[in-house]
Amino acid sequence: MTVVDGQDRVPAAPLDAQDRQRLLSGTHHDPHAVLGAHLVSGGVAFRALRPGARAVALLTGGRRVNLSDIGDGFFSGVLPLDAIPEYLLHVTYDGWSGEQEDSYRLLPALAEFDLHLIGDGRHEELWKALGAHRMTHQGVLGTRFTVWAPHARGVRVCGDFCHWDGAAYPMRSLGSTGVWELFVPGIGEGALYKFDITRPDGTHTLRADPMARRAEVPSATASVVTRSTHVWADAQWMAHRADRPVHRAPFSVYEVHLESWRPGLSYRQLADELTDYVTDTGFTHVELLPVAEYPFSGSWGYQVTGFYAPTARLGTPDDFKYLIDTLHQAGIGVILDWVPAHFPKDDWALAAFDGEHLYEPKDSRRAEHPDWGTLTFDYGRKEVRNFLVANATYWCQEFHIDGLRVDAVASMLYLDYSREEGQWAPNESGGRENLDAVAFLQEMNATVYRRCPGVVTIAEESTAWDGVTRATHETGPGGLGGLGFGMKWNMGWSHDSLEYIKRDPVHRVHHHGEMTFSMVYAYSENYVLPLSHDEVVHGKQALVSKMPGDWWQRRATHRAYLGFMWAHPGKQLLFMGQEFAQGAEWSQERGLDWGLLDPAYPAEPDHRGVRDLVRDLNREYRAAPALWERDTEPAGFSWIEANAAEDNVLAFLRFAADGAPLMAVCNFSPVVRRDYALGVPDTATVWRETLNTDLACYGGGDVGNADPLKPDPDAAHGRPACLRVTLPPLATVWLRPE
Fold first, then answer.
1. What's the burial of 547, exposed, middle or buried (CB within 10 Å: 0-12/13-18/19+)?
2. Quick one: which of 35, 462, 552, 702 could link to 104 by a disulfide (CB 3.0–4.6 Å)?
3. Are 121 and 382 in contact (CB under 8 A)?
């Protein structure tokens, strides 16, 4: 050792030419074997890679030792020591110098058990193992970066902390799992980062972290280091949400696109305004269009690039937790739209992530989603299945989500979905079923229900697939187990009933079956009746605008239809804006027409009347167990009159678990029908009208049954008594025994 200018200088440690080249090109699988401190003949060799640095010194044992500049940003030296000491690096750049911990003196920060679970595709808390995690490791505060990239020749971390030059931060491969890891001291919350991946062909690609729990505000695409400090206050909600099965409980859903409900509001502002609004209107749950980060606003969130990150457009992940927490404290459940069916092709996200087909299948006949120009997931790959199953659990466990509505399930289940002959390949049995997708959905549902009591999964499945809500261990006629969902959207009901309701009443006589057919299969699955965003966009018109007739008739039919929907077996879902009869189609580019509820607007009473009806529908619905206790039991429903096509009338009974009935009668003609005879049980001596969509307070003509009704002893419709009811025009009435 020599002394120059009062400072120790040590001989340089040699650097193998191949190691130098691999580190500089980003293709080294084990940079820790070269960089850092290592016992060698003659002492301990120290090597650091700091591109652009003017000097690097070693601080150890109270000494400062200058390392030799050996070119290309490498600095090295050998100290005559018997053991590797604790040390720091002092790095000098033009305009800055300071002390730094050395990443390459530290052991892997990911446990062997995590790697074992990842290798098996069974890490149910994958988000705790992969991604960026602020932590203290070997006494050093920093961030652990981990990423799955099995085809990569090398991976480096880069970000705003290194001017997006990842040369100084090559990651190490952790064996056959395909996971790469690096703990970087000093990196804290809010740091921006990506992974610089060297593909098999030697080219580089800069990718956002698939497991990032926070992202930049689009159109920026970097991932963000984050940690949660939110303290939940919804313990009572969480403790009791599993007390009663969802299909036997009130379940009335308000579907919301957060960005356009009231544009400009953040998650925290929505926490107050949305909670107050939903509380006032009486819905039991809100369903949020996808919030996982997405680049293109026009996709409404259905083309996801950040599956673990709530969109930064409205705030931070903790801000989103605050919104959910506030809703829970008000007694409102939260359902999240979840999109495991496909993902976009953006070259900074999941597509060909490490240079090969990783998240998507290799076979383009399975990889390409023809409807949306996106890619499907490779459900047969255990790591991809793990990525998605853990993601479902993540939202429920970390964000206290109460339900997942799984988008586009049919497109996952069928290999020939939207494909012509020759564009798809059959499964190993020669069939069209995607058996890998079936297995994935079964695993997802089983895992969520096991780990998250009280959570419900809901399938948007548009075909007649057998057993969507059947238990996974119960085999159906086709030899496959059930998919294991809790509920399924009844899209057949939506289609048929909307086709009926938009016809002029004079023509409805010929289409009466469109309103009754749903009861043929009502108990084949556990159903939700959806009037969703899909029904009020792209030229389909808003709900009230679908109705025929003048403004009064359209509003009346709108109200009558909602009364029918709330009384029909199944849960109900209504998209925002339809609860106050907004006439314009929804667009994500603008907010709802809240001005329609401004008292200064001349037609305000018309719109407020519809909203007041929805509030009262929800109130009466909650108060009537007949409408929800036996939703999935045929004995909970009985037709009174299903064949009055000439009258445009439907009448049926619903029954609670104790047998208490509720009668719903719909008159979809513009004619008042007085003393309309309807057969009823003889167990009740007096019936009272509890809801009437024609009341003046809702904007109707105030025709109805103000006084209690006593049944006649005359038999009707196969029942021992007869109730003579006044049916308002274009209206639904509910009656219950007094």
1. buried
2. 35
3. yes
